[in-house]
Each structure stands twice: as structure tokens, then as C-alpha cells.
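Subject: Sanity check before I submit

Could someone independently write out the C-alpha cells for this chain? I want to compare against mine line by line before I put it in a report. The sequence has 324 residues.
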Amino acid sequence: MMRFIAALVFCIASAAGAASAADYSIKLAHSLSSTEPAHLAAEFFARNVAERSGGRIDVQVFPGEQLGSGKDVNAMIRGGANVMNITDPGYLSDFVPDVGVLNGPYLLRSWEDFRKILASDWLKEIDGRLRKAGFRVISYNNLFGPRHMLADKTIRTPADIQGVTVRVPPNQMWLETFKAMGARPTTVQWSEVYSALQQNVVAAAEAPLGSLYGSKLFEVKKTLSLTSHFIAWVNFVASESFFQTLPQDVQTILLEEGAKAGDEMTRLTLQKQQEYLAQFKEAGVTIVEDVDLAAFQKSTESVYSAFPQWTPGLHKQIQAILAK
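---
Independent answer below. Compare away.
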């Protein structure tokens, strides 16, 4: 709580200091390293917004949980702060439960499937509900990448993960998914994962390749199993109440440049997949590619019935969108 209050005071003070330099100042936070596609896309967004607005809008990017945890930053956003966050549907499901289905295990067969979600009436309806909950999504189209497992052991089948303590983010989808696999999910903030692995608080971590590499987790765990349990997308989000205080032209700049930043993040994520695998190999990490994805998918089917707060038939509705 004290960290949250300190971060909020910092944001207010920073905004006052920047007022003379720009008409509008926004802090864009995330939990990741400064080498990852998400951060590079955030900087791309900040540069383009500044250029297009003629310097009227100043977006400052804060990586590595500098403004607090993802939950803390989302709380600032709901409170109306001039803050943006790179967050995901799992965190947003705390406020609009149905959006959490987008983080479901093995929901997407490929990253391209998400284009169908982006074009759907369902997402338009979800967007309206998120606005009512206090969030303005600046971009939905940010590919984070397939999430894989880094541990000291090979993970080819659900049997290999039975009883293994796995670090997961603090939201229900991850907890339910890894329980269904037979693991022991443990919530740890991303900034603390390295030490948690090093001290054997957890035995494994899962994340996209960029995050696993960018946080140097390969220094403590040496086996990477390509489980692809989630094909993850993240969102750039701002406060709806703050957004509504902005002139129409500023709103348009943020939304249009946000979509471009999403495309850029997707491009970078796809471009870097093989680069990351090569870097892992150079670091002495064993890459396990012959994972039984069908077995993992079957083991996690029950997850979609573990959310009584979802709209009835939600999973089938998403499957129908993807089948078009």
C-alpha cells in the first residue's frame, strides 16, 4: 500500500513539473525489461504521439514496475490518474470478468486468430463494459507471444509438471490453468521472479520468450519447454475519466497511434522469436520442442468451467467467433 501511495504521489508531482513543457503529460508503465518488444513499442508510441501532436502530448515510459505492480497501476488508472499501463485481459478481468476468457489456455491456434476477435461485435461490447469500469483501452492489438515454461527439468507432458511449483501472475486464469495441469501455481510479482527462482521459492516460471530472456531467468534455470499454453496479447490502457478530459484531437492521436504501436509490437514480437531461441541456446539453455500440446490442451479443458461469474456460454461464443 505504501508503495502504491508513493507511486501515486510521484505521478501527480511529475505531472505538475511537466506542465510547462507539454499541454498533456502521461506516464506509461509496465512490468517488463527495457529490451522487450512491449517496451520498444511503448517508446515507439511515445515518439509518434509527441511528433504528431507537435510536442503537446508528453508520454514518459516507465519499465520494470517503477510505478508499482500491475495491480497498483490499474488502481491508479481507475482513480483517474494521468497514467497508462501495459496490462492484459487477466488483470482487466478483475473488473470485467468476461474479458479474462482471452487469456484462456490453448484458446488460439495461432496469433492470427486474434484478428477475428479484434473484428468482433463481442469485443466492441466488452470495450463498452471496460469503459464503464474506468478503463479506456488505447490498443488491443499488441501481440505478447506464446508463453512457455522455464525450469530445471524437461516438461513435455502434464505428467512432467505434477506438483511443480510454478510462478504465475496474481490472477485467476493462471491459477486455474496450472492447477488443471497438476502444478502448484504460486503468485509472485514479475520483478521478484528472478530471486524466487534463485532461492527455490518456485521451481519454474512461464512467460513469453522476450520476458524470460529479458529478465535473465536463464541464469538460474536452464531448460526451456515450448508449451505455448497461452498465446498472449496485452493492452495499452488509460483512465476513462482522464481520457474524457482530453480534447477530441488528442483522443484521436492516442487511439490511432496506439493501434500503430500495437502493430509495431506484434511485428517485433514475431521478428524476435527465433532470435530469442538462438540467444537461449548461446546461454546454455536446452530447448524442448517436442511438447505434447494435445495432452496439455486436454488437461486444461476444465478451466473454462471454473469461472461462474462469466456470461453463460462465453467460451462457446468465442469459439464460434474463431471458427468463422
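---
OP: Matches mine. For the report I'm noting this point. The radius of gyration is 19 Å.
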